Amino acid sequence: MISHWCKENGVDLPKPVRDIDEEVITDADRSHLNSLLNKLSMSISDQKEAAKELRLLTKRMPLFRILFRESSDLILKLLSPLTPGTASIHPDLHEDLITTVLNLSIHDDNKKMFAEIPLVIPLLIESLKCGTIQSRSNAAAAIFTLSALDSNKSNIGKSGAIKHLVALLEEGHTLAMKDAASAIFNLCLVHENKGRTVQEGAVLVILKKIMDGILVDELLAILALLSSHPKAVEEMSDLGAVPLLLDMIRKSTSERSKENCVAILHTICFNDRTKWKEIREEEKAKGTLAELAQCGTSRAKRKANGILERLNRSPTLTHTA
User: Fold this and answer.
1) What is the number of domains present in the chain?
2) What is the four-CA torsion angle of 208, 121, 16, 58, rounded to 10 degrees?
3) Which residue of 31, 120, 163, 283 has the fewest C-beta atoms within 10 A of its own C-beta?
4) Are 263 and 308 spatial neighbours (Cβ–Cβ below 8 Å)?
5) CATH code, domain with 168
């Protein structure tokens, strides 16, 4: 997923550390980096010039991403202009520095270091809330790349970032929604973050986006993850997810979407008996699950058959909400 994101956004993935000849990092490289970092403590014009060059260097030259792993002090110098409340005063400076953090976070060694510096995650959260839409999108993308490490998933979840990722997704900026969704998906791979995501209202936000045909594959994948949380199942049932999911199975041309739809329905069916009558009546009228059980992916067939078997075992149940 990270390599796909990098390709779409024109960022060069670093070579594996073991494949890099460390000797290509010269004293001149270190000197140039230190010169740029020192400029970040000078005048605003110097800061903006240095930030723009750092953004470009860390995007185009993996070598400069590697240099930052040598000391956390380098990262602290990079972040020094990003004090709370400055995003709206100098949005271009803020955007360049947040984008530099994103570029650096792609390197595996930097992921752990960044998350261990107390300043980094709060600054990314601040950037999710204000600044240019590019800054907010890149802050979400940085959280996505940092969350590739399981230890970071937990720390980011505890930080309160999920609330602001959900808000960014809800706002609907095309540029930012995909990065926010990718970050939410990664964070929800850790069970404790599923509850946090549900608590922040993600189920309603996601269902509305899906109904509008926005990021359907990506958002269904998040719902499928969340469906292992009881509160998410309850909310999906209450918000009318069952007919929506059945309709999508019939109409979607995406096998991935159909598979996630039936996986979510399977969880709802096995956790909420009040939906059995609704699913049974729809199946009797349209045969949606029977068709999927014949023509879907192996996982989709298994889930569809599981629902049908459950319904057939209890033909007289007519529970309603």
Assistant:
1) 2
2) 100
3) 31
4) no
5) 1.25.10.10
- C-alpha distances (whole Å) from 241 to each of 2, 170, 181, 185 are 30, 18, 19, 19
pLDDT attached to residue 70: 86
Domain contains 142:
yes
SS3 316: coil
**Is residue 185 domain-shared with residue 41, that is, in the same domain?**
yes
Residue 162: C-alpha distances to residues 141, 198, 205, 311 (Å):
13, 10, 13, 37
Query: pTM of the entire structure?
Result: 0.88
Same-domain status, 54 and 143: yes
pLDDT tens digits, 232-246: 999 999 999 999 999
Which one-letter DSSP state was computed for residue 25?
A: S
> What is the rounded average pLDDT for all residues in the chain?
89
Domain containing 86: what range? 1-200
Number of CB atoms found within 10 A of residue 229's CB: 21
Same domain as 182, residue 296: no
Buried b or exposed e, range 233-257, using 16+ CB within 10 angstroms: bebbbeeebbebbbebbeebeeeeb
Average pLDDT over every residue of 288-308: 95
Given a cut of 90, whether residue 222 has pLDDT beyond it is yes
The verdict on residue 205 lying in a domain is: no
Do 154 and 236 belong to one domain?
A: no
